[in-house]
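Anyone up for a design puzzle?
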């Protein structure tokens, strides 16, 4: 284990030339970041996860109820032992061959079986109330960290003059405020590791979506688009990439980890460009829809983008009053096996 740690923390990879880990030991005059500080993020992440559970139950949930957000989820699929067994034990996305086999076994048409599987998959999605509470927690934490970061960073000299940090690199002292900021952010993302299997990624604007505040949805969407594009396509390359790529090269020169981190930052910028393209594309579609009807960029009436499957459930649904699981009849006989149907198909085997 000691050999692995020594290899991982190789000085010639992480640090500039002529700098060693011994040079970054804490002294009475200054405190520097230590690798051991990363371990602190794990217990803090667990505490944040517990705070989230308390926040969602005693803060977010009452707010959701006050906004008349109900704990209703997607439509429940009708019970069927055979389809349920296939869904839980074999596959949630049956192929065409399996669909045809189930159609013959149950005497259902294929579209009805496809509709059942879509309903059953959507049935496992969280309710609107759960989604609201999740979004409110993330919105509240991000807002708090943003306000704290602005209050702290505006007092630092390297916030206004980016070259300042490179002249002292890597001997930049670690202040208490900066240490708290980094540990809290790192712990938050570690806490998401505990809930990533149940969380569904959404914007904070989704809270207005779930509360059916259409005008607020539109306003938040516009604000989100403006802030995202400005910060990702202007501030990030001009302020951050210019500093890490060119100013750092001029002052300290490249070293192995310098290349790694800058390549990762360039990858992030590429993703920013792609995400900005998607946002602009969505905005253009929203504007074009607004010419013919009401502008609804966040799909308040249908939350297809992240809450339920975007497949065409409505297209496969039968007209009201018609049983979707009854096979089509021709001349009084079933179109599947020729037997006369006197009522809906049995839901049990």
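Challenge accepted. My sequence:
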């Amino acid at each position: 284990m000691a050999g692995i740690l020594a290899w991982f923390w190789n000085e010639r990879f992480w640090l500039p030339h002529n700098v060693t880990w011994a040079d970054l030991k804490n002294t009475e005059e200054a405190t520097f970041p230590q690798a051991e500080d990363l371990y602190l993020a794990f217990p803090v992440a667990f505490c944040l996860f517990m705070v989230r559970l308390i926040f969602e139950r005693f803060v977010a949930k009452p707010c959701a109820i006050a906004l008349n957000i109900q704990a209703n989820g997607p439509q429940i699929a009708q019970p069927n032992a055979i389809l349920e067994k296939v869904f839980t034990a074999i596959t949630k996305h049956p192929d065409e061959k399996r669909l045809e086999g189930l159609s013959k076994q149950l005497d259902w048409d294929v579209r009805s079986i496809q509709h059942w599987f879509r309903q059953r998959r959507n049935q496992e999605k969280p309710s609107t109330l759960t989604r609201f509470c999740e979004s409110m927690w993330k919105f509240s934490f991000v807002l708090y960290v943003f306000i704290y970061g602005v209050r702290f960073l505006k007092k630092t000299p390297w916030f206004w003059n980016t070259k300042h940090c490179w002249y002292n690199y890597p001997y930049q002292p670690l202040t208490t405020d900066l240490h708290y900021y980094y540990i809290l952010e790192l712990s938050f993302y570690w806490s998401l590791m505990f809930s990533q299997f149940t969380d569904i990624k959404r914007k904070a604007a989704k809270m207005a979506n779930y509360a059916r505040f259409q005008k607020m949805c539109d306003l938040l969407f516009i604000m989100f688009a403006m802030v995202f594009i400005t910060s990702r396509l202007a501030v990030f390359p001009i302020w951050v990439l210019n500093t890490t790529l060119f100013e750092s090269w001029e002052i300290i020169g490249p070293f192995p980890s310098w290349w790694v981190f800058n390549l990762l930052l360039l990858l992030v910028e590429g993703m920013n460009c792609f995400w900005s393209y998607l946002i602009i594309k969505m905005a253009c579609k929203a504007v074009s829809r607004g010419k013919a009807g009401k502008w609804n960029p966040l799909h308040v009436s249908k939350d297809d983008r992240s809450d339920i499957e975007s497949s065409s459930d409505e297209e496969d649904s039968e007209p009201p009053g018609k049983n979707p699981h009854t096979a089509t009849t021709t001349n009084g006989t079933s179109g599947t096996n020729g037997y006369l149907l006197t009522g809906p198909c049995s839901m049990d085997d």
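A detail worth pointing out: The longest strand covers residues 329-330.
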